[in-house]
């Protein structure tokens, strides 16, 4: 019995970790497409093709439900996949909607018209492809009015994290926060719209200052998954827990072990 979790690389481990804490009995098949990371600098077509291949691999591993724990794939590929590719007995869910529901104080499935919400000035930090897709603004507009979003494409951060160069990642985060502040001096909330960024959450919070509420996806998505499985217990698939990568399993295992501070062993996908 396993649910699939997919990311271009190691960022989705932040979602996996929260999901394992929230659902300790559940098994997960995690797939990192490390050979093709980062996705955030690729075209939408390229991201679609890579995401389809990865999700097919997780279906083949016995998963009936796959979480795209990758904003870039959720933004650039999910809607197109849902429009024609996903078999009717399978489900693929993204990470955007749960986050936006949390930001706009909505419960799952609340499809009432957009309304005013508490937060008015939101900084979005995401990959270049996610920012270019404008998927965040589109989903937000379905649910809230009067929210000003300033997006900052955080080039280089995912590469630095995948390389384990946390000093470079920290310097880049600080410079992206500075760049954002030049466009929006006083955000009320900041959205970490890339699942790699919770690994740098303290740096984001420190650079933004204590008054800014930082929304990161791991716990929000884990709660939403638990809620979904309560309503759809038939979507717990038949696979067995595993960590799979299209990259070098030893290298990816070392980084994953460093990030989650427990032994994680990847196998070749
Ligand atoms: N963790 C992915 C995301 O949430 C990173 C994408 C990338 O590989 O650039 O967007």
Task: Please tell me about this protein's structure.
The chain has 269 residues and is an alpha/beta fold. It has two domains: 144 residues, 3-Layer(aba) Sandwich (Rossmann fold), CATH 3.40.50; 119 residues, Rossmann fold (3-Layer(aba) Sandwich). It has twelve helices and twelve strands. The strands form three sheets. The chain has a six-stranded parallel sheet, with helices on both faces. A four-stranded parallel sheet has the order 8-6-9-10. A two-stranded parallel ribbon has the order 5-7. The chain is globular, with a radius of gyration of 17 Å. Bound molecules: D-glutamic acid.
Task: Write out key terms for the chains shown.
269 residues; alpha/beta; Rossmann fold; six-stranded parallel β-sheet; 12 helices; binds D-glutamic acid
Strand order in the sheet with the most strands: 4-3-1-2-11-12
Instruction: Note the overall shape.
Output: globular
CATH topology of the largest domain, which one? Rossmann fold
Number of strands: 12
Rounded mean pLDDT is: 94
Helix content: 40-55%
Question: SSE string, helix = H, strand = E?
Answer: EHEHEHHEHEEHHEEHHEHEHEHE
Bound molecules: D-glutamic acid
Number of helices: 12
CATH architect. name of the largest domain? 3-Layer(aba) Sandwich
Q: Low-confidence runs (pLDDT<50, min 5 residues)?
A: none
What is the CA-CA span between the terminal residues?
Answer: 19 Å
């Amino acid at each position: 019995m396993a649910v699939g979790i997919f990311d271009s690389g190691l960022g989705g481990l932040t979602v996996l970790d929260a999901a394992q804490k929230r659902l300790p009995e559940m098994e997960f098949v995690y797939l990192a497409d490390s050979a093709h990371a980062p996705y955030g600098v690729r075209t939408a077509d390229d991201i679609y093709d890579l995401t389809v291949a990865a999700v097919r691999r997780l279906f083949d591993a016995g998963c009936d439900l796959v979480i795209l724990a990758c904003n870039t794939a959720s933004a650039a590929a999910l809607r197109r996949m849902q429009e024609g590719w996903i078999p009717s007995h399978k489900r693929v869910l993204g990470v955007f909607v749960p986050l936006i529901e949390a930001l706009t104080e909505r419960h799952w499935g609340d499809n009432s018209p957009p309304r005013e919400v508490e937060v008015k000035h939101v900084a979005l930090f995401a990959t270049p492809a996610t920012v270019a897709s404008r998927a965040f603004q589109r989903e937000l507009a379905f649910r809230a009015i009067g929210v000003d979003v300033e997006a900052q494409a955080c080039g280089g951060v995912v590469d630095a994290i995948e390389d384990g160069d946390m000093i470079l990642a920290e310097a880049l985060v600080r410079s992206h926060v500075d760049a954002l502040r030049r466009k929006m001096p006083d955000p009320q909330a900041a959205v970490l719209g890339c699942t790699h960024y919770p690994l740098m959450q303290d740096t984001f919070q420190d650079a933004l200052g204590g008054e800014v509420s930082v929304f990161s996806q791991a716990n929000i998505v884990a709660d939403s998954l638990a809620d979904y499985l309560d309503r759809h217990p038939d979507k717990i698939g038949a696979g067995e827990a595993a960590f799979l990568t299209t990259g070098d399993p030893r290298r990816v295992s070392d980084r994953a072990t460093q990030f989650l501070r427990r032994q994680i062993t990847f196998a070749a996908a």
